[in-house]
Task: structure prediction
Amino acid sequence: MTLQSKRSLIKLAGLSSIAAAAALVGCGKKEEAPVAPAPAPAPVAAASAAPAKAEPLKIAFAYVGPVGDGGWTFAHDNARKAVEKEFGDKVVTSFVEKVPEAADAERVFRDMAGQGNKLIFGTTFGYMEPMLKVAADLKDVKFEHATGYKQADNMRTYDSRTYEGAYMAGVIAGGMSKTGTIGVVGSIPIPEVIRNINSFTLGAQSVNPKIKTKVVWVNEWFNPPKETEAAQSLMNGGADVLMQNTDSSAVLQTAEKAGKMAFGWDSDMTAYAPKAHLASAVINWAPYYIKATKEALDGTWKGNQAAWWGVKEGAIDIVSISDKVPAELKAKVDAVKAGLKDGSFQIWKGPIMGSDGKEVLAKDAVADDKFLGGIKFYVKGVEGKVPGGDGK
Result:
């Protein structure tokens, strides 16, 4: 064997020894105690469920006329929209227009409740008895009745002092009439309307004590043809300034066609007859509707209550006074409005005489709401007799 061969064998033997040693070391590692597995991660708690969003309060309105009447119902619908704007997705509102003041109103109220409405507004006097009947059967629904006087545990009444707007319109009428005769188209002879006629007259007489007022009744809230006919009759009788306690703009438009003057009522009616328009005595129902809705939402709503809001609460105003009205008349209206707002002025303060010449309110006496709510007579200066009244 050569030296080179011996070296090769020695090298090979050495490599084999190293390989064997490595194999033994590897076997030693496999025999060591196994490393304990890492503990399993703790289960992640399920995320807390987000609180369920409260269902919106469903509110329904029953209107006696069409929303486009430009007056009474239009004012209520503007207030409904104000509620939507104020409360957003917390409420859902709906309405039914032209609901008769008859037994059919009861069906409408029950249907509204059946659709899930929990706050229901009835916006005319004739809904009182039907609403009262439904309220007795549906204790979980809150009912609000406009211009009525009967309440229940889940029903209350609200009204606006429209006679304040009528008085301010009267101030303007008394100064603008050339004939000394003004006219009113009356709807239905209930205290609310009679009070407005009288207040219009008292306002006019505060400027011209000799003013006379003529009245024609149409016995409906909304009937433009009848209102037109009544307005024409008043003008034929010498009235040159007209007001109405009806719901359309027909009286104002009829006055314009005849070259006479008139007022908007319940809503701003300037656009209907700008040449004849002297001012509009308006109602803003939004403050009350927002208050009632808030109370229904936060759980503070209570029945057996009555609200009667006026200039003081922002519910009554006279707006869009014409440039034809002299500055001194505007100033007088502003003074009356300020006095009504701070309580320093009283429209119904004696002495006040009835149309029969008898005293109905003694000197310096101020009529309370009970007196105002029961007026069934004309004041001195109003011609004729109240239909079904006491003849004063």
